[in-house]
From TrEMBL:
UniProt record similarity statement: Belongs to the TatC family.
Protein name as it appears in the record: Sec-independent protein translocase protein TatC
Keywords attached to this entry: Cell membrane, Membrane, Protein transport, Translocation, Transmembrane, Transmembrane helix, Transport
Membrane-topology descriptor: Multi-pass membrane protein
Cellular localisation: Cell membrane; Membrane
UniProt gene name: tatC
Amino acid sequence: MSLGQHLVELKKRLIISAIGLVAAMVVAFLITDPVLSLITEPIREVAESRGEAGRVELMFSTVTSGFDLRLRMAFALGILMAAPIWMWQIWAFVTPGLTRKEIRYTIGFVGAAVPLFFAGCATGLLVMPNIVTLMAGFVPDGAAAFYDASYYYDFVFKLLLFVGVAYVLPVFLVALNLAGIISGRAILGGWRIAVIVAVVFAALATPPADVASTFILAGIMTVLFFAAAGLSLLFDRRRARRDQALLPPEIAA
């Protein structure tokens, strides 16, 4: 394909992706109520535990803040809901330039990264109430705890995104190994740092009193790291055998 044909194809893929995103945003806007109820449940739990209903609430500080929040939620949810559409468009645009082997690697990468990302988001959603409860414990007795809606949403969104990306990082390590950038031995050699990072992250994401959640989260991240290291070592061994088989007999001997 010529450069002009590539640009036409890119424009077509972008238009389809944009239409899918807009349609998903419209649907997402209609379901912001249950989503908002889900992510604000910790606030209601804090109010109930403190016995201060009316003094622990989500606060909308401007006239348009309610609409702005729903619009931002619709955009984020729309991206997730429209993911099959825009990911397929990216795939359809890139595939003609990939070899059969690269296509297999890409399918494997996406097939592993997507469920891991959503699993990470689900984990973040599980630990979020613990974080909100812990932080609320620092509010002095008798003081009101009003959470700004925009700030609270940013906190939840960034937490879910951060944990989701943390779960996907082992897949990136495997991808770097397949690209020949880093060896499986080098990945495994950094296990001490990986374990420390996992424990520190889990400790920050869970309250000190909830030791079980800390160890579960750290354990999951550690297992994912060692799984990535194991796969990379396996790929290195296969690559070495293949290279050995391609050598002339006299050199191989």
